[in-house]
Amino acid sequence: MMGDKRLNDFKRRWQQMQYTECALYAVGVAGLFYLASQSFYLGFLGFVVGMAVALLLFKPWKLSAEQTVAYVDAHVPEAGYSSGLLMLPQSELSNLSKLQRYRVETQLDAVLTKLKPPHQLPMAAMAMFGLIMIGLAIQFMLKEFQQNPKTPSTPQNIQFAPLDSVETNTAIPKLSSTKIIINQPDYTGIAIISTENPNISAVTGTVISWQLEFDGEVSNVQMDRMGELFSLTKRNGGFILSQTLEASGFYSFSFEGANGNKFVTDLYSMEAIEDQAPLVEIDGLDQYSYFEYNEVKQLPLNTKVSDDFGINGAYIVATVSKGSGESVKFREETIRFDGTLSKGKKQLQLKKLLDLDKLKMDPGDELYFYVEALDNKIPSPNISRSETYFAVIRDTITDDFAVESTLGVDQMPDYFRSQRQLIIDTEKLIKDKPNLPEKDFKFKSNELGFDQKSLRLKYGQFMGDETELQAAPGQVSSVESEHEGEEGEEKDLLDAYSHKHDSDNEHNLVEEHEGHNEEGGEEEEDPLHDYLHNHDDPEESTLFEKSLKAKLRDALSIMWDAELYLRLYQPEKSLPYQYKALKIIQEIKNSARIYVHRIGFDPPPIKEEKRLTGNIETITNFDKKQEFDHQMSFASSRKTVSRLEQLIQGSNFTEMDRVLFQDAGNELAKKAVEEPLKYLKVLQGLRDLDKSVNRTRENYTQVQKGLLSVLPQVENNPGKMEQYDDEINRLFINELGKND
């Protein structure tokens, strides 16, 4: 029976390992609860809960003998997968089984005591320490939050302290009653609040009333609100003051006693909460919707409107556009939602089915609409609107051009792509080339070539190019077509139907002829040619100056090359020419704008009797001098740093110091509203120096360090500075900074 005892001992050690793991997890949970709450009872509760959860997960009491035997057989070769024989009575075993049982028992007697049961103690220990570290981190953050709150030390009532030392036998007036009434605007629906807490947070426009009563005789009770002084009115034995909350800030109270001693409070906060504009959301609607003329033209509009204090109204603003070009007309309508709008609610679900037929829209018309909502703020409500949505009914009318007898051909397109648009389309075509069939690619490239040609013709009108068509049949010389070229060469039959890019008559617009007179001699040059404005010459019939005309001619030539490569289905070679053409066009536009600056100067008339006399006595030089006063940022705060250094060395506190510290506090108060965590501690330290009990060397040093930490660097005046900077000096300065 020795082997049976060994297996039971191993099973017992395995269960002890599992119980230890559960205990480690429970200790970790208990440490987390205790460190986060600083409560022994919560820590004990955490241990109980953690232990119960771990026991339910591991269930060590359910460890069976079969699991023990399976583990021993798998990890002990000497067992020969026969350790289960040790758990059976010998009377049930055969002779061979008894022999095997004896052999296994002999082998396991020395091995089983050294076999370690399976466990995860390292993981459980790591989990325990991890939970304890989390608890320490939470405890540290709570302490930091308590030591550095977002507002200055926030007592639950107003407390006064003397500015200067007061004799012990002098009666000090005390604040006997404090009442602060916060009356927020009626539209917010918030009831009037009466409190003693001087730190106030309310909606913008709230009327705040302070009522202070004192034990003893006091006078000149004032509120200091970031540098502005407001006197409290004495009424019924107390002092009252009412103000409207418009912006966030800080304030304090001060008064004078019967003996002329002055008393002041700490800083208290006033936070103005802005009334937010309504939030408008439209669900399940595409920003662009298109309809055919013969389908149902309806748009379901599901709108969600929310506001912090209540919604006063919501409606749809729809604009219908009819026509095109200069004949376009707009009609604006205000459409109400279905049902009755419940004013004052903070959330509304609104629905409306927009029927374009009811809006009297025809094919080709466009609808622009958005939802506008306003809250119940008084006197001026906040208004917000959604994005603009579009709905279009496709036009069914198209213009087709046909060639009829006695009618010309209209080859101008409906619109012109600009050169920039052509570049964008060409780049897109190059990008999509691998995914396009060859037929579609060539078709699009050819279409872009046609658009490039259309743009070139459009700019050609400014150069006097009337058309690019061939001459009329009556104007074609039949003589040239009946003869061969010089030296027996054949005449090119396609000469009259192709563009001659290498010739002066590039567009085949003018009948080519030699410059000879009727007598066969060379035609003489007109001596007045350079001094006349010849409207018959398209090169001269332009309003541009010579340089602009040359630039535009260069742009047209480059457009020829861009069109050529587009026609040859090589858009990547056309793109550089398009960029060159765009650059020249932009230069032409910028050159044209210069006339705006030249127009408008009308020089004064010159008296003929003083002209060319050389008299310059009344002419003086213009000399203007102007001085600018540089205002250094945080000037009072920087002076305070210097003065605090003197106070640390032993100087006496004077009334001028109090004024200087108040000015510095007013400078920091403006920043403290935006960044309270950075400036409030320094601001409170400055205000504490007004009290005589706080005027110690340690407080002076602490306030000075705080000021130096928040003050920005002094702005450098513009000027040239000699600076010697090389690699060795820079490394030396870096090392000095590390060892400082």
Automatic annotation (TrEMBL):
UniProt entry tagged with the keyword Membrane: yes
Top-rank taxon: Bacteria
Where does the record place the region Disordered?
A: 469-538
Listed Basic and acidic residues bias regions = 491-519
UniProt keyword terms in alphabetical order: Membrane, Transmembrane, Transmembrane helix
Which positions, given as ranges, span the membrane? 16-34, 40-58, 123-142
Give the protein name, as stated in the record.
Tryptophan-rich sensory protein
Q: Which organism is it from?
A: Flagellimonas sediminis
